[in-house]
Amino acid sequence: AGKSTLVDKLREKYPDLVFKTRDDILSSNRVARRINTLFQFSLNLAGYKHKSEDPLYGYINEYPDSGRYFDVRLIDLFRKLRIRNYNSSILILEEGPVQYLSSIPFDCQVKKSDNLISSLKLLKDIDIVLVVCNCSIQTSIERIRSRTKASDRYSGKTDKDLFNLLKIKADNLEAIIQESGLQRYDIDMEKSLDTNVDFLYHIVSEVKQ
Q1: Cβ 56 vs Cβ 75: under 8 Å
Q2: pLDDT of 18-64, one tens digit each?
């Protein structure tokens, strides 16, 4: 089971636990949301093309070959988290800002630049706890094979290429987590779904106190 399944099962098993997910804080109309975000992103990116005053755009421009899919989602999520206060409620993001930051470099090693460090500082104003879902690279490859579309960035890659790519992504994620200094919990995704749901419930309960 993946992250989304884990969160869905948490809501199902513990109906009294009140929390929001990413879909709850963003527009329910995903097409309109993506068009609106892409439009805003394009306007802002044009303004910050050569010299960025916003560390997020500066960070994105350090990786011109990353593609714009994660760029749009990163900007959208950061914008929503910064303009609204969710500290009074539990918000569980199956894909959060730290993961998006680590996805921008994609197939190259992340640079611990001033833009990255400044982007992470933006998270200090938000009460964030990281839950890192760990699984083997081989398990990740199997999951990718089961869901990859023709237009996916993983399509057409051999298992060897995928292994090397996922190793880079895992290293980038860990480097950014370490740089963030945020509190973290680790979940072993090789364990049973029920076991991990119970552990996630324990984490959420502890954070709420």
Answers
A1: yes
A2: 787 877 766 544 544 455 545 455 545 444 444 446 888 888 888 88
Residue 113: helix, strand or coil by DSSP?
coil
Instruction: Output the six-digit token pair for 79.
Output: 């914008």
* Amino acid 51: pLDDT: 45
Query: Would you say 183 and 130 are in contact if contact means Cβ atoms under 8 Å apart?
Result: yes
pTM: 0.80
Rounded-to-integer distance, Cα 31 and Cα 37, Å: 10
Expressed in angstroms, the distance from the first to the final Cα of the chain is: 28
Burial of 149 (0-12, 13-18, 19+ CB in 10 A): exposed
Inter-axis angle of helices 30-47 and 69-83, nearest 10: 90
State pLDDT tens for residues 151-176.
567 778 888 999 999 999 999 999 99
Q: Residue 78: name the closest of 90, 61, 93 by CA.
A: 93
User: What's the gap between Cα 203 and its chain centre?
Assistant: 18
173 contacts 70 by C-beta, under 8 angstroms: no
